[in-house]
Each structure stands twice: as structure tokens, then as C-alpha cells.
Design goal:
This protein has a single domain, classed as Four Helix Bundle (Hemerythrin (Met), subunit A) (Up-down Bundle). It is 53% helix and 0% strand. It has 5 helices and no strands. Helix 3 packs parallel to helix 4 and helix 3 runs antiparallel to helix 5.
């Protein structure tokens, strides 16, 4: 579709951060593995739990956009990691890669020449579900929880 470049640029900026806050990549990079499970008294979640929640939720919204056979997930069990499952460094790296990969897929949707931001997503069954809405939803959700990651990093002296 022929949208003004500013619409795509603004959607990408919302996904990637860097305007009113740190970039997504800056927030999730260079976190020492030995810090990802620490839960200071002031926090409910660890960095690991927050990243996994971000990954699960972002992936769910991407699947909702792309898959006509999308199956609704169960809240909250399908959106937060199992607290009894302690990640190793490989799991942490796979989680980071999954989050980055899905974020890249969302960026690709925004950049696609045939992206119709305001048309209802055909298989979603409601006019309000558009690509534009879902991108805003991901950006808003990510900004909230990435802010929590920054707070944890500050508390842990790794920011």
C-alpha cells in the first residue's frame, strides 16, 4: 500500500524504541547471565521472567496476525514462564534470539510493500483487529515490560 513513509517510520520507531526511552536492543543487550534470575525485594519478576513474557506475548500477537488457524492462548499460564524451570545460558540465548526474531518479523510486516495497516485482519473475525492496532499493541506491551527490565538492571547495578 502507498502510505506516507512517516507512518512506517513511526511504527518502526515504536517497535524499536529510542525516542522517549532506550532502544529495545540497548535494554536487552549485555545482561550478565548471572543476573537474569535475581529478583530484588522491590520486584515481582526476574529479568528472565520478563524477557520470556515479552517473547511469549510478542510471538502470540505475531501468530494472531499471520495464522488463520490461530488458537487463543490461556492467560496467564501461556504468557509467563514456569517458575520451576531454571534456564541455562543456552535457554537464555534462545529466548533473546526468539524475541529478536519475532520483533524482526513484525518490522518486516510494517515494511512490506503490500501491508494494509488499516484493513481488518481477515481471519480475526472483528473489524477492530488491524495490523496497525496489533503493531501498536506489541509496542505498548513491550515498552511497559522493557521499562521494568531497565528498573531491574538499575537495581542490580547492570545498567
Amino acid at each position: 500500500m502507498n502510505y506516507p513513509p512517516t507512518i512506517r517510520a513511526e511504527l518502526l520507531a515504536l517497535l524499536e524504541g529510542g525516542q522517549a526511552h532506550a532502544t529495545t536492543e540497548r535494554i536487552i543487550s549485555d545482561i550478565p547471565f548471572n543476573a537474569i534470575l535475581k529478583t530484588p525485594q522491590a520486584s515481582v519478576h526476574s529479568i528472565w521472567e520478563l524477557l520470556e513474557h515479552l517473547r511469549f506475548t510478542q510471538n502470540d500477537i505475531l501468530e494472531f496476525i499471520l495464522r488463520p488457524d490461530y488458537i487463543k492462548k490461556e492467560w496467564p499460564v501461556d504468557y509467563w514462564p514456569d517458575k520451576t524451570n531454571t534456564p541455562d545460558e543456552d535457554m537464555w540465548n534462545k529466548s533473546l534470539a526468539g524475541f529478536r526474531g519475532d520483533l524482526g518479523a513484525l518490522r518486516d510486516l510494517v515494511l512490506a510493500d503490500d501491508a494494509d495497516f488499516f484493513a481488518p485482519i481477515p481471519h480475526c473475525g472483528h473489524d477492530k483487529y488491524t495490523l496497525f492496532r496489533q503493531i501498536l499493541l506489541v509496542a505498548d506491551h513491550n515498552a511497559h515490560h522493557l521499562g521494568q527490565v531497565i528498573s531491574l538492571r538499575r537495581i542490580l547495578n547492570i545498567w
